[in-house]
Structure formats: C-alpha cells, structure tokens
Amino acid sequence: MKEAKIIQQTWIPVALIAGNIALSHFIYLLAKGDYNYHLWATVICIIAITTGILRANKYLLIGGTGFYSIVLLVAICL
Length: 78
Hints:
Blueprint: H1 2-32, H2 37-55, H3 58-77
C-alpha cells in the first residue's frame, strides 16, 4: 500500500513532466528532419514512460525517465 502511494505521489508526476519534455523533443526532431538514433531513443522513452504511467509500474517509470535523461545529456553533449 505504501509503495502505491509513493508511485502515485512521486514517480507519476515526474514521469508526466519527463513525458511532456520527451514529446516536445520528439516533435522538434521530426520537424528538423533528424531521423537518427536520438529520435528512436526518444520514441522508446515515450513508450516506456506512457506504459509506466498507465500500469503504475515503478520500474518502467524509473527506467523511462532515467533513460530519457541520458538521451538528453547525450543530445546536449553532441
């Protein structure tokens, strides 16, 4: 019961914010015409975050959000 409350109060809001940023990044990459691995990594992150939110799965939320933060760091550094 306590774990469900932590997921609802902590991870889902963080995942919603990360999902909105990922969707904006995805639309930007599509508009730019940049169809490299950043685009596909962003799509995988969006799918993981969305599935994690719908199923309230802690591991998908953490994995999708963490992986997307790595994708952003790589995109900024390159």
